Amino acid sequence: MIDTTIDVINKLGLHARASGKLIEVTTKFRASIQIGKGDKLVDAKNIMSLLMLGAGKGTTLRLVIEGADEDKALEEIQTLFAAKFYEAE
């Protein structure tokens, strides 16, 4: 099990388009992927749950991943966040 944090660094935060891109990544994996603030974790494969987080720029999110492909899932999620969801700034 991986339990780590990740920072939202893109200008608009985890808005609809960014959440959609995150869903594209998370749904490729069999691992359970949860994301949230502190103890309030939501399913990172559910767009409505992601949007309800209200994670703006500067938010630190907790990421909990558990499953056979957890390492690859973490790597791809970190890449997506680091690339600011491939949005023009």
From TrEMBL:
One of its GO terms (biological process) is phosphoenolpyruvate-dependent sugar phosphotransferase system. It is found in: Cytoplasm. Keywords: Cytoplasm, Phosphotransferase system. InterPro entries: HPr, HPr-like, HPr-like_sf. Residues 1-88 form the HPr domain. The keyword NADP does not apply. Pfam families: PTS-HPr (PF00381). GO terms for cellular component: cytoplasm. PANTHER family: PHOSPHOCARRIER PROTEIN HPR (PTHR33705), PHOSPHOCARRIER PROTEIN NPR (PTHR33705:SF2). Belongs to the HPr family. This is HPr family phosphocarrier protein. It comes from Acinetobacter proteolyticus.
